[in-house]
Design goal:
The protein is an alpha+beta fold. The chain folds into five domains: about 110 residues, Ubiquitin-like (UB roll), CATH 3.10.20; about 180 residues, 3-Layer(bba) Sandwich (FAD/NAD(P)-binding domain), CATH 3.50.50; about 120 residues, FAD/NAD(P)-binding domain (3-Layer(bba) Sandwich); about 130 residues, no CATH class; about 60 residues, BFD-like [2Fe-2S]-binding domain (Arc Repressor Mutant, subunit A, Orthogonal Bundle), CATH 1.10.10. Helix content is about 20%, strand content about 25%. It contains 17 helices and 38 strands. Strands 9, 10, 11, 12, 13, 14 and 25 form a seven-stranded mixed sheet that branches. It has a seven-stranded antiparallel sheet with strand order 26-29-30-33-32-31-34. It has a five-stranded mixed sheet with strand order 2-1-7-5-6, covered by helices on one side. The longest helix has 19 residues. It is globular, with a radius of gyration of 26 Å.
């Protein structure tokens, strides 16, 4: 079983064991667990075979938006990532030659319910929850819906502490704890109805919103709508991109941090934004070896403290590199990377191969804005916030949700005053991209104990300033974007170390021995890895080797789920030591295999398995309409509704030298995700196996 039983932040909860079978093999799951996670926990990563070429299919989005994880469950085709296991469930591989199950659809006719509300919020992530709380404060009749089993969106997957402002967005608090705080606040406001497991299917022209709640279909009639559906991860085209073991960072975090399933032993990451950097760190926390991370740009686009944090632990970050191919038969076995020039062209002879069983694609996000577009077409009072409006950090999403709620209040006539202008200014700061990186400054002179602030990049963050009891840490200027500085007296309380989201504060203590100071280093990779008396390897701010040191003590601050490892380094490196190095960096092996067939091996549309070569041939023949391309090649015709391939298709047009203004986009499907036809008329559809089980007790 591939379950995580020990984690530095997350505590496994006792749950009842559930027995099921997969292709006749007995398997064990936990009550309420999704089929996909249960299969991974049982070491199963191939869920189906594609009907076109019998290629192995596995998990991809873990978000219910594609259909790559589909299986047969008691004879009925389902998406395994959003279907819970139940006792005795018979799960089977979905194969191309499999016959469709017979469905019984002749019971329980009923009228579709209509529900009038003042405000409907689609999406229960940080922005949606923040909006719901604001509306609840003034007693607005509000319904918030989310298709997951609990609220919080991506917050429930985040074990790291958040950046931003303590006052505005819980900076210094872990994402999982922020989710609990926001969800808990909903219970304080009786005017807010909260539905989990409720999928928004569409916004219709008669200003009604179709919501599928379990097996019940409801037409919601809101006076105003807030769209907070978040974002989906972008895909990437390269040979082997559909192999089981290749998926997005969000899917990985779902398995590891939500379900405590260890899906990998050796992990490689493509993409140096915050999503990729954070996912790599989460893998290390779960006891997974991170072989490397590559970024096509000259430097990572995410926060420097996130990049430094994994460099220091021994993860190599290679800028100006791209993924060339993923290799394997039934699943990922190796990744091949190469250097690129300033135009992102592969430099011949620079290919390297790394053994890995999992490859995370973290190359950006696309806003889920379909509902907002539909609502605007219907003439509704429609507002958008969070990643559905603009991709940014969760700290900005929460503040964005508050602003959207106040716009709704004004549209409903509950509050006439406009949103305060300084709110927009604060939001812009929280959405800011990383600024300049400042040079290291001389540390405190003459102090017996003092913090060393290794945070040198301008990012929106102030927790260390807020928690210092002596007010000795201050921002260099008036903006939250300014870097912090120590200017005053330190009492050695460790608060700044424990609150720092980037683990970028250490404490040098010369009180016992001025010539041989001790240094406190924050550490949250795992309990039991380091003990008093150990000899450990130290790393500087960007991972540089600073030699060995003795561990004097390990302090466990369980309330913060952070350890402080107290070491005695060489006196000359005391101010520079930031972390322990856990792993030696790997360099990979030279790779010289033939890559000429890359176009035909690269799948652009994973649902229909349409290759890059097919798409290029159509473009070169003059196709400029994605709908025509869809008719010719079937690209975009699959179950995901082009959610995973639309952006890739546009990038292919761009690579062929086509001005994207010439390209006609795909016509969006009326429904966001698939739904049984019976739900729209109150008909309950079941497979024959489910029907037999239903009547077996009579």
């Amino acid at each position: 079983m591939e379950r995580i039983t020990e984690h530095p932040i997350l505590q496994p909860q006792e749950r009842k064991a559930v027995q099921f079978t997969f292709d006749g093999k007995p398997c064990s799951a936990l009550e309420g667990e999704m089929i996909s996670s249960a299969l991974f926990a049982n070491g199963i990563k191939v869920f189906s075979r594609h009907k076109k070429d019998s290629a192995p299919q596995g998990l991809f989005c873990a978000n219910g938006q594609c259909a790559q994880c589909s299986v047969l469950a008691d004879g009925r085709g389902v998406k395994s990532c959003v279907t819970p296991v139940r006792e005795g469930l018979k799960v089977e591989t979905l194969r191309g030659e499999a016959k469709l199950p017979r469905i019984v659809c002749a019971q329980e006719f009923g009228r579709v319910e209509e529900l009038p509300v003042d405000a409907l919020i689609i999406g229960g992530g940080p922005s949606g929850l923040a909006a719901a709380v604001e509306l609840g404060k003034l007693g607005v009749d509000t319904l918030i819906v989310d298709d997951k089993t609990r609220f919080g969106g991506k917050l429930v997957l985040q074990t790291h502490k958040f950046f931003g402002s303590v006052e505005d967005c819980y900076a210094g608090t872990r994402g999982i704890d922020i989710a609990e705080k926001l969800e808990g606040q909903l219970k304080e406001y009786p005017s807010v109805k909260a539905w989990t497991g409720a999928t928004c299917l569409a916004v219709f022209s008669d200003r009604k919103v179709g919501v599928l709640r379990g097996e019940d279909y409801v037409l919601v009639r809101p006076k105003a709508v807030i769209h907070a559906a978040g974002a989906r991860e972008k895909s990437l085209a390269f040979p082997g991109n559909t192999l089981p073991g290749v998926y997005g960072a969000g899917a990985f975090q779902t398995l590891v941090n939500r379900d405590l399933v260890r899906p990998a032993k050796r992990l490689f990451v493509v993409g140096g934004g915050n999503v990729g950097l954070i996912a790599a760190y989460h893998a290390l926390q779960a006891g997974i070896r991170v072989v490397g991370l590559i970024e096509a740009q000259a430097a990572c686009g995410g926060y420097k403290v996130h990049a430094d944090k994994i460099k220091r632990l021994g993860v190599p970050i290679l800028a100006r590199h791209t993924i060339v191919r993923a290799e394997g038969r039934e699943g990922l076995e190796a990744v091949v990377i190469a250097e690129v020039d300033e135009k992102f062209k592969v430099l011949p002879g620079t290919q390297k191969s790394f053994k890995a069983d999992t490859l995370l694609i973290a190359v950006g996000l696309s806003s889920v804005d379909e509902f907002h577009a539909q609502a605007q077409e219907a003439g509704m009072d429609s507002f958008v916030c969070g990643d559905a409006e603009e991709i940014a950090e969760a700290s900005a999403a929460m503040f964005s949700g508050k602003i959207a709620a106040h716009k709704v209040l004004k549209s409903l006539g509950v509050m006439a005053a406009p949103v305060p202008p300084f709110w927009f200014e604060r939001l812009q700061v929280l959405k800011s991209r990383p600024g300049a990186t400042r040079p290291a400054e001389a540390q405190a002179q003459g102090q017996r104990v003092y913090p060393v602030l290794h945070c040198r990049q301008e990012i929106p963050c102030n927790p260390c300033v807020s928690v210092c009891p002596k007010k000795a840490i201050k921002l260099a200027g008036e903006s939250i974007m300014d870097v912090p500085r120590f200017m005053g007296e330190c009492i050695g309380c460790f608060k700044c170390l424990l609150v720092c989201p980037g683990l970028a504060v250490t404490l040098v203590d010369r009180r016992k021995d001025p010539d041989h100071p001790s240094v406190a280093l924050p550490f949250e990779i795992g309990r039991g890895l380091v003990s008093k008396g150990d000899r450990v390897r130290l790393a500087g701010c960007e991972g540089e080797d600073l030699g060995e040191a003795e561990v004097l003590d390990v302090k466990d601050f369980k309330a913060d789920n952070t350890l402080l490892v107290i070491v005695r380094p060489s006196p000359e490196v005391a101010d520079r030591a930031v972390s322990l190095t856990l792993y030696p960096a790997e360099e990979g092996e030279r790779y010289s295999a033939e890559l000429a067939k890359a176009d035909d091996e690269t799948m652009v549309c994973r649902c229909e398995r349409v290759s890059l070569g097919e798409v290029r041939r159509a473009i070169r023949s003059g196709v400029r309409d994605l709908n025509e391309l869809k008719a010719i090649t079937r690209a975009g015709m699959g179950a995901c509704g082009s959610k995973t391939c639309a952006s890739v298709l546009m990038s292919v047009f761009r690579s062929e030298g086509v001005d994207l203004k010439e390209v006609t986009p795909l016509t969006r499907r009326p429904l966001f995700v698939e739904a049984p036809l019976g739900v729209f008329s109150g008909v309950k559809c079941r497979s024959e196996a489910e029907e037999k089980a239903r009547w077996s007790g009579f």
